[in-house]
Write a structure and sequence with these properties.
Helix content is 33%, strand content 18%. It has seven helices and nine strands; from the N terminus they run αβαββαβαβαββαβαβ. The longest helix is centred in the N-terminal third of the chain and has 22 residues. It is globular.
């Protein structure tokens, strides 16, 4: 990994740690919503060693693949392996999957589970794919319109471009946060973000759903 990307991951971890610490000054628990994928790993590892009252922090995911946690594709597995270690092992993790066979069967259970958390979240960390998706708000998903407009907190998503069914927090739910931080690397994603900033069709580049709310962009080449 480039030094620049390592430095970026550390800066993001410091910003998230400061945000959680600030909110925990005046509330009993704080909520951190993170994204999966490959980009977050050095950020998770930097954050995991930060000194915080982690026992008062709830961590959940912006989205998840509907797979068992033993699967390499599981975002919960990624978070447990790289974030919920060291000091952060004391945090309370709230997964987005159930034992149901499909996300459609599990969505109500997951919605009830996350409703118990300390919304608004202190921080939502978003990633972005090369197609401009964020969380599991994919341009080619038949459920994108619903996920962008529903008052429900969680949506089951089937996407031709993705091998597994997914479950995602809705755009409305993801907006329930004091701070939004977008973490991405590389020239390709920078160009996609530039296109997103230059237009307004959210269906084409769903990351646009978060460009209006204050968004801290953490990008490295
Ligand atoms: C997921 C993520 C997804 C991710 C982007 C970027 O479940 O895959 O939540 O939204 O943030 O796909 O992924 P990379 O960091 O692997 O490029």
């Amino acid at each position: 990994m480039s030094q620049t990307r390592e430095n970026l991951a550390r800066q993001l971890a410091e910003a998230v740690s400061e945000a959680l610490r600030a909110d925990l000054e005046h509330q009993e628990r704080a909520l951190l919503v993170v994204s999966g994928g490959s980009t977050p790993v050095p950020f998770f590892e930097a954050l995991s060693s930060m000194a915080l009252p982690w026992e008062r922090v709830d961590v959940t995911l912006a989205d998840e693949r509907w797979v068992d946690e033993s699967s390499d594709a599981s975002n919960a597995r990624l978070v447990r392996r790289h974030l919920l270690t060291a000091a952060a092992a004391k945090a309370n993790f709230v997964p987005l999957t159930t034992d149901d066979a499909t996300p459609e069967q599990g969505v109500e259970t997951v919605a009830a589970r996350i409703a118990q958390l300390s919304w608004p979240a202190s921080v939502v960390i978003l990633g972005m794919g090369g197609d401009g998706h964020t969380a599991s708000l994919f341009p080619d998903s038949p459920e994108l319109g619903l996920a962008l407009s529903t008052d429900e907190s969680v949506v089951a998503v089937r996407t031709p471009s993705q091998p597994q069914p997914r479950i995602t927090l809705s755009a409305g739910c993801l907006h329930q946060a004091r701070r939004h931080m977008l973490h991405l690397n590389g020239e390709d994603k920078r160009a996609v973000l530039a296109s997103a900033l230059a237009g307004d069709d959210v269906r084409k580049l769903p990351i646009r759903a978060f460009l209006a709310c204050p968004l801290a962009v953490y990008w490295a080449p």
